[in-house]
Design a protein that fits this description.
243 residues; seven-stranded antiparallel beta sheet; 6 helices; binds manganese (II) ion
């Protein structure tokens, strides 16, 4: 939904990196900002991420809350599961992002996540990851088996434990409702960004760029300069509150 008390400045950037195709999909309009990272080989990954976004676009209508977000994610899961699997491997996709909504008259970010793409918030120049990665390595870190500072180099870091589509009949998204604070900078990205750049580096890039599009462009350029092993997709959304 478009809340006329909130003014948004939005930047979007994506690059194929060293991969033969770009299987990430992105939606950035109507108060809804989503990144999806498809997997499945050949065209299946692209179709999976695009299909998920098409269904999740339904969240841009009305004043969605957590229950509607969960329902819409489950619907997206069903659509991706119904896609044909040409390679014997079921197509799947991550999905993460925010929709601008309200709760008790207060403008809020409704954050949704399935998989290991990420949504961050930078407030007062400090970057924090809002979402939790649904990956084997994140679970190993949470249980203390792998130290947090080794997670980004771990060989299992790209093994996701929850996806839209894939082999599981059900999916449970994580959902958060956060009040919009003036000056919030939201960042949505695929793992092609976070596998190449540390959170500290991402924070430095975001602090160095005042415009949302310049910030998105500089993050993608930095990920490519760091190797660009995967598709990299970034949305930056800056919020200002009108009084
Ligand atoms: Mn990826």
């Amino acid at each position: 939904m478009i809340d006329d008390r909130v003014v948004l400045d939005v930047g979007v950037a994506t690059a194929q990196g060293q991969r033969s195709r770009n299987e990430d999909s992105v939606w950035a309009a109507d108060g809804l900002y989503l990144v999806a990272d498809g997997m499945g080989g050949h065209e299946a990954g692209e179709v999976a991420s695009r299909t998920a976004i098409e269904v999740l676009r339904g969240l841009a209508v009305g004043v969605p809350g957590p229950e509607e977000a969960r329902r819409t994610v489950r619907r997206a899961h069903a659509f991706v599961r119904d896609l044909p699997s040409s390679t014997g491997r079921r197509p799947g996709t991550t999905a993460t992002g925010v929709v601008l909504t309200e709760h008790g008259q207060t403008p809020c970010w409704l954050v949704v996540n399935v998989g290991d793409s990420r949504t961050y918030r930078m407030a007062g120049g400090v970057l924090e990851q809002v979402t939790l990665d649904h990956s084997e390595v994140a679970e190993l870190v949470a249980s203390g088996v792998v130290p947090a500072d080794q997670a980004s180099k771990h060989p299992r870091r790209n093994v996701v434990t929850r996806v839209l589509g894939g082999g599981s009949p059900h999916v449970e998204p994580d959902v958060w409702l956060l009040p919009v604070s003036p000056g919030d900078r939201m960042l949505m990205c695929s793992d092609g960004l976070t596998d190449e750049l540390s959170d500290a580096r991402i924070q430095a890039e975001l602090r160095a760029q005042s415009g949302a599009q310049a910030a998105a462009d500089s993050l993608v350029a930095a990920a490519l300069a760091a190797g660009g092993h995967d598709n990299v997709t970034v949305i930056v959304v800056d919020a200002t509150l009108r009084h």
